[in-house]
Amino acid sequence: AAMIIHFVAGLASLLYLPFIFTIVLLVIFLSATGLTLGIRQRVADLLILIFEWGSNVTEEPEEPTKDEQTQKEEEEPKPATIKKRHSSSDLRIIKREHSDVIENKLQGQDVLKKKSTVSVLVDDTLDFISAGIESIIEDNVTSRFSAEQLPSWNLLSRTKYDFQHISPKLTILWILGFCFRYLILVPIRVCLFVVGMASMCLIASAVGHVPNKSIKKWLNRRAMLMSMRIFSRSFSSIVRFHDRQNRANQGGICVANHTSPMDVMILSCDNCYAMVGQKQGGILGFIQTSLSKAEHHIWFERSEANDRKAVSNRMREHVDDPSKLPIIIFPEGTCINNTSVMMFKKGSFEISATIYPIAMKYDSRLGDAFWNSTKQSYGEYMWMMMTSWAITCDVWYLPPMTRLEGEDSIAFARRVKKAIAKAGGLVDLEWDGALKREKVSAKLIALQQKLYFERLSRRTSMCNDVTDEDMDILKNMSEEDRNQLLKQLDESDDVDAVIRKVSSFIPEVAQLVTEGNQTEPVN
Amino acid sequence: MGNNSSLMLRDEEIDVITNETEFNRNQIVRLYSRFLSLDKKGQGFLEREDLMNVPELAVNPLGDRIVDAFFTLSGDELESEKRLNFRQFVRVLAFFQPIDRTKKNSLNGRKDKLKFAFIMYDLNKNGCITREEFKVILNSMVGANITTDQLDKIADRTIEEADVDHDGRISFQEFCKAMEKTDIEEKMSIRFLN
Asked: Residues A293, A208: contact at Cβ < 8 Å?
């Protein structure tokens, strides 16, 4: 019996290596020519069908109402539809009504009659409390920095949740999946990765020696595209590009939302970009140097990176040169979990007046590409990617956007962000991605206070000090007259009101106001 | 990464919490998931800082006070015990469930909701809201945007309206009386989805 096992093992290993070898060769051929056999897509579709079948088996035993059941069925994913899927919004805990109320109040969208200061304060305090509790239960920001929840399990232990029942059938499926992934997929992928890395560095260095500029450019393009395609196959990425007519050709700046370190790799499968980044040491540094031999990339020294002006200048030089490749930039500054787009930093929007926006939406059912840099190291992340099923991504090239007359870079950035969010079906947030690691800035807190103060001024007669006599007069007036008077007081151009408005912006004037109030009575 | 936690919630615990509060199993599990995501250091309990790390709470003018009231109401009598385990977390959240008149729930009645608001105002926890304490609250809501004069005037007006026995402070009874006309149930209830 032992001999049979030995024989089978020998045969397996004999077939195994050539098997991997052929696949690698096939992949290189396909990448070089830019063709695809469509295998990845078919396997992905099959897997999704399997997941759905699996989750049908794991309906929870307790189902109180029929409504709930139909709701759950609707939540399950439809097979591989392109375009916008709002997945994680299905798993809300509460309905955030009070937060919306506060939002409306602060933005001045509840323009009603003026009320007494006390009643407004009490009312608002209660709303603030409830909105605060709501944000403890569920908020818009902290959820963006961890992987989004899937409606149904995709047979990866990393996405299993405590509240899911796993039947024996599903366990068997999981074991099969595990074997398939680790024994077949991973070796192929590791080989491909090594091949891709080697080809990229070697060919780039070789191309660097070519004297003729246009041939060099052509060769570099073919080489980069091929290497990137090998890479993307090494992670089993399935990428769909939309609206390719909007691709950047003649240089310029491309911006995209950031989800993972692989964003650049995925985008480079279709077009060549000049990369921007900090000069690293070690292996990454070596890669950076080899790449730079064939084409112009922008690598900053650590000290230079802190000097904003130097950075802008170098980028501007690059953009102004039409022979150079378009730059790819991720203005969020950090990886977000691909359910939303967070604040775009204005730096890159100051350099050029024309921006080519790109929207990227990953489908996390087969593997979540999001890199949580606070929890995973780079190596761990790469390993996770290698052992997932596949990485699916939709890329939309948006038509180029230009800065309008009199639009400052912050407003421009916001406009581009909105367009990207809309195209990718992502939530558009104004929060800074830096909140992943940092606390809320004091400026933001002060802004909220100012907004609330403005609300009080709108809704109460707080700022225009009303004496008791005035109160009596007001009470005896008719409703319309009273509203008229209050409106006039509000809009009056008296100096005190103006100073108060200005003092909310400039602290020195506020100082004058308090001093002035001590000497003369407020009218 | 997914919710692969070693701090798993046991079924018995879920049952106890279901009996104590009006949350069903599904909601409790989701709240547990949230508890874990707030507990970034994986300690098994929450501290003040963990709650204040929520950006939307940090910009809420009363954020600080809400966290304080949260911890005070969690049931720990000791000042030094500023830790919140999951059970305490859910108990406080249960205060904000909508009032269901058919069920005899001890946690989310009108009085209990008012208690939360009262504790939020009462900084030193002596059972009374003074003018000074109110001024502090008001100050955190509007910041440096109003003069101290206006602050005093508003505080005075507010305290006077509620202070029935004119002792310059507001007790819990006076507070409840002042809130009689307010629809507390609507204002301080959060709709939990199933």
From this structure: yes
* A312/B164 Cα distance (integer angstroms): 65
Angle among Cα B107, B52, B124 to the nearest 5 degrees reads 65
If we measure between CA atoms, which residue out of A140, A138, A120, A141 comes closest to residue A130? A138
**What is the CB neighbour count within 10 angstroms for residue A123?**
17
Host H or E run for residue B171:
strand B169-171
pLDDT tens-digit map of B125-183: 888 888 888 888 888 888 888 888 888 888 888 888 788 888 888 888 888 888 888 88
* B192/A94 Cβ within 8 A: yes
Predicted TM-score (pTM) above 0.80? no
Closest C-alpha to A375, from B86, B36, B84, B56: B36
CA distance A162 to A143: 18
Q: What are the pLDDT digits (tens) for A32-44?
A: 777 777 778 888 8
Nearest by CB to B142, from A163, A431, A456: name it: A456
Residues near A121 by beta carbon (within 8 Å), at least 6 away in sequence:
A456, B138, B141, B154, B158
- Separation between Cα atoms, residue A372 and residue A337, nearest integer Å: 8
Nearest residue to A125 (alpha-carbon basis) of B162, B103, B99 = B162
Burial of A116 (0-12, 13-18, 19+ CB in 10 A): middle
Model confidence pLDDT, tens digit, residues A164-214: 566 777 788 888 888 888 888 888 888 888 888 888 888 888 888 888 888
Contact call for residues B159 and B153 (beta carbons, < 8 A): no
For an interface test with B, give the residue of A101, A136, A380 to mutate (most B CBs within 10 A).
A136
Beta bridge partner(s), residue A394: A240, A361
Interface of B with A in 77-106 (CB under 8 A): 93, 96
AA identity, residue B89: F
Chain A to chain B, count of Cβ pairs less than 8 Å apart? 189
Which residue from A68, A117, A124 is facing B157, i.e. has the nearest CB? A117
Q: E strand or H helix at A191, and its extent?
A: helix A186-208
ipTM confidence? 0.89
> A392 to chain B nearest CA, in Å?
17
Q: State the number of CA atoms in the 13 A half-sphere of A377 facing the CB.
A: 2
Helices (H), A321-441: 378-386, 409-424
